Amino acid sequence: MRLSKIKRLKEADARSDFRIIGIDDEAGIIDSLKIILEKQGYEFEGYTDHEKAIEMIKNNHYDLLILDYLLDNIKGSQVVELIREFNKELYILLLTGHSEAAPPLETLEKNDIQGYCLKSNDSSQLLLMVKSAYKAVEMMNEIKLTRDGLNSMLKAVPKIYQIQPIDLILEEILKSLLPIIGSTDAFILVDSILDRNMEARKESFFKGIGKFDTDINSFVSLFNPILMEYAGSARIAQNVVRYEEGVFFPLLNENKESMGVIYVEVPDNKNLKLLEIYANQAASSLNNAFLHSMLNIKNEELKKTYEIIRTRYEETINTLRLTVDAKDEYTRGHSDRVAEYAVELGRCFDKLGENDLHILKVGGIFHDIGKIGTTDDILLADRKLSREEFEEIEKHPVTGANILSALSMFSDIVPLVMYHHERIDGTGYPKGLKDGEIPFLARILSIADAFDAMTTNRAYRRKMSVEDAINQLVKGAGTQFDSEIVDVFIKLLKSGNFGS
Q1: Residue 150 located in a structural domain
Q2: Could you tell me the strand order of the sheet in which 199-209 lies?
Q3: Of 55, 205, 351, 495, whose CB has the highest number of CB atoms within 10 Å?
């Protein structure tokens, strides 16, 4: 019984943060809505003047608008059009006095109106619709939080992988970590055994932010025995451990040995999985830094260390690349297929060596990594995009190139990612390069990318047949695509050896 009561209190508290605004000509309706909704724990304010209400929506945050469809001097749909000019996210529920006056479906779709409800003495239907709105907004907020967290990770990864002093890396990790979860207080404890001059030496590092932003001596007074116990538990078990208002994340090196912990104060368990992914990347970046500090020990270990750093960074970017794939079922596996097509096509050119084929493979895998920064409503749209939305899509080659440019080891990959949407006639993006200005490998990747896009189902269209895709490639030869490479690709497709 007590647990049930606690649950109800938490739900009521959450509802009080769900802000509802109402517009209706009749003051009596506004009063009724206020009584009904506040009895259920919602926060409500209502207006009979639609202009004043619109101004309130413009200057304040609301989660739900309950709007009379037939106001005295203006239609509810017109009010919605005015609101949608500056607010695309507000959940809107129309009220109608008669079923015959219900808004047509076209009106609901055009203005992103989520539903309508008949005015009635029985408030059960209205409350059901409001509860549905509450759940929908709650879910969208979680999605937005995850998306914002992914964007924060995107910006953080290149920074934390830069080779710099350990204390600066720790500070960058914490500064990039907090926006992901919306927290202000965190710390890192990490240690590493460094072999300098052939003598083992253990070094420990600490960095705090927020209330933990202090030196190690002052930190000891904050790090009480209970906190130490939970930190030790996270390290030994190599699992996430919650302690009161915070969470410990273990930091593991490439041998799955514990290097330390990150502690973040968070009010709930939302986005913990995202934090766990970030903690893994933080551990990888720290391990890279420790490896880098060993570069002057033995020259024969240089190559091995370099490859470990490269592998860790590739794993990090691949995690983000898979996140992009997971966001859209229609493009899942797209990057892997593009990489395969590009390599097969590259093999047809004698002038390309094994290193060129490797560059094509990695370029294909990572060519769309920049889409991690594109919002879901654009990336997953099943309609024609507006000019502004398409401009957001056009940013992904530059974003991807910036991510890969953080380490010089990816310098050969960057041109493929940057220029795979350029066109032979100079009308592509992001630079408007033409003909020979476009790197040869990027021209190969462009064709592989286009072919897979055409032969794969998308949210806004069904896939083409291979024959139709070939016709499109021929049609674009000399304008969008390199004619010579198109001819070679078509011969490859028709040879029957493709993919063998």
Answers
A1: no
A2: 199-209, 186-196, 258-265, 246-252, 241-243
A3: 205
pLDDT digits (tens, 9 = 90+) for 94-115: 888 765 655 666 667 776 777 7
Where does the pLDDT of residue 439 fall: very low under 50, low under 70, confident under 90, or very high at 90 and above?
A: very high
Q: Is residue 316 part of a domain?
A: no
Q: Residue 450's closest CA among 409, 413, 493?
A: 493
Count of residues for the chain? Answer: 500
Residue 258 β-bridge partners: 252
DSSP string covering 50-93: HHHHHHHHHHS--SEEEEESB-SSSBHHHHHHHHHTT-S--EEE
In a domain, 61, yes or no: yes
Minimal CA–CA distance to 169: which of 154, 182, 156, 180? Answer: 156
- Strand 241-243 to strand 246-252: parallel, antiparallel, or no bridges (unpaired)? antiparallel
**Close Cβ partners of 151 (under 8 Å, ≥ 6 residues apart):** 372, 373
Q: Identify the CATH number of the domain in which residue 129 sits.
A: 3.40.50.2300
Whether 265 and 399 map to the same domain: the answer is no
Backbone angles phi, psi at 45, to 5 degrees: -140, 140
* Claim to verify: residue 331 and residue 477 sit in the same structural domain: yes
* 394 neighbors 368 (Cβ within 8 angstroms): no
Q: Indicate whether 207 and 66 sit together in one domain.
A: no
pLDDT tens sequence across 461-482: 688 999 999 999 999 999 999 9
State which residues form the domain around 499: 326-500
> Tokens in use for 107?
């009106």
CB-based burial label for 271 (10 Å; 0-12, 13-18, 19+): buried
**pLDDT for position 323:** 64
| Residue-level pLDDT at 304 | 56
Number of domains in the chain: 3
